[in-house]
Amino acid sequence: MLLGLTQPDDAAVYRLDDERALVVTTDFFTPIVDDAYAYGAIAAANALSDVYATGGRPLLALNILALPADLPPEVTTGILMGLGEKVRESGAVVAGGHTIQDKEPKVGLAVVGLAHPQRLLTKSAARPDDILVLTKPLGTGCITTAAKRDQAAPEHVAEAIGWMSRLNRAASEASLLAGVRAGTDVTGFGLLGHAGELASSSNGTLHIEFSRLPLMSGAAEYAERLLFPGGSKKNQTAFGSLVHFREEFTPAEQLIVFDAQTSGGLLLAIPPAGLERFAREMERFREPWWQIGKVGERDCWNAVVQR
Question: pTM for the full model?
Answer without folding.
Answer: 0.96
